[in-house]
Amino acid sequence: MIPNLGLRRTAPLRRETTSSLICRIASCYGMEAKVLRACWKWRNYPPGYEGGGTRADAEVLLNAAGRQLLAGICGVEEDVLARALPSWEEEDTKLRAEDGDPVGLWRIGGAVAGPVAFGCRLCTARRTGTTLRAVRYAPRWERVCVRHGRWLLDADANQPLEHLDLHDLPEVVAAQRRWAWVARRAVRAGAEPERVFALARAVVARWWEQAYGWEREKIWPRRLHQVAGGDAGGALERWRIVGRDAVVFPEVVAVAEALLDPAMAELVWADSGSGRPRALPVDGMFCRRLGERLGRAWLGPLAAADHGGPLIAWMGGVIRLRRGAGGPPGYDNDPWWLRQEHQAATMAGQLRVLGKEKKAPGSGTMWRAAVPAEQRRLITSAVDSAEEQLLQLRGVQSGPTAEVARRLLRGLGQSAGLIQNAWKRTAVAAVNGGVPLQEVARWVDLPVEVLREMLTSGGQEDSG
Prior knowledge:
The chain is mainly alpha-helical. It contains 21 helices and eight strands. It has helices at 18-28, 33-37, 64-74, 78-84, 110-113, 121-128, 170-188, 193-210, 219-227, 236-242, 244-259, 262-271, 285-293, 299-304, 310-323, 347-359, 367-370, 373-395, 401-432, 437-444, 448-462; strands spanning 41-42, 58-62, 103-108, 116-118, 135-137, 144-145, 150-152, 163-165. The strands form three sheets. Strands 1-3-2 form a three-stranded mixed sheet. Strands 6-7-8 form a three-stranded antiparallel sheet. Strand 6 (144-145) and strand 7 form a beta hairpin. The protein is globular. Mean pLDDT is 83; it is low at 458-464.
């Protein structure tokens, strides 16, 4: 039964989720959202978090009768809603109306129309007259509310914050304005702005993970403590996840601008030997200039030595295109192609990993999240090889059993060495990042003295 809602008009926000609009309509009339949602027949249940509760980025798809009903309830024409709500005309085979009944279907917003973020409540109040939570589809390069100095957070993570305060970080707000110019430059260069941003974000996010051991990095720690309210304190690891995208946003925009600069591409070509191919040098002009543009003259050699990362992959694409060595159009000769293993981890995914690690510290089950992608591939490949050789050994009825056993032991030894080095690097990074040695020892279930001796003895050989 449709509740008597009167004639109050509730206008949608630009790119708002349909679920968010329904929640705002219910709030305007002082009722719970589930009461209003009872007006529709639902084919499934709303997506929830592991610990319970409906996800903030939950989205709904409506059939024609359901859309007509919502338009009548909020007092807004359907064509207006179609322009404002990205999911308005999304169809699904499960939306089979019976006798014209209004039917709804739950989905996760990110799978419908892209990344979902919280809206600025102050902007919502200015637009609607009520300070209510709103959830909108927003690409990651549009997360700064310039008017109110806020960074709008992803809505897909199970955490209570909707925004971060940027009043003491004018450079982040300035980067938002700068991005509009970079996006136009990308279009003029024949590149898709979203792909340019994704690649630049992957490059900087990789640096962010490595920055635990960068003693000369002073900018990011200052910004991180500011978005954390002045001091990240004992929740440093959580704030490194929640605050990452806001803290590194100026560098992401600067890297995107640099990658679009033809002069920087010329430096890549010169570093490669131009017409006389050679290995990219650690002191190459491109990486040195990139570090200078970011205000970090010391960053160049570190970026150049990070083989297997998205920046080197981009440089390789630029070189292949310049040499004309690429084949037909594809990822191998597309500088803006971002490999899956290079994509930056999401805040939601990292928080899930952090939560599991806190529940079972030192279990070793989360090692994949702490090891760089290329090391994960090496470890996984070595373990798979060892397992295959073990199966061969089990199936040997005759022949050189000793040789199979030797290959098996070599494979297991290589796997153990890779995992041990990855474990040491993770422990060293944690200690260098400010985690107390006693806490790290508790995670790995070792006495403090033993852990200290292992890290000290392994520091030199692992540094390379």
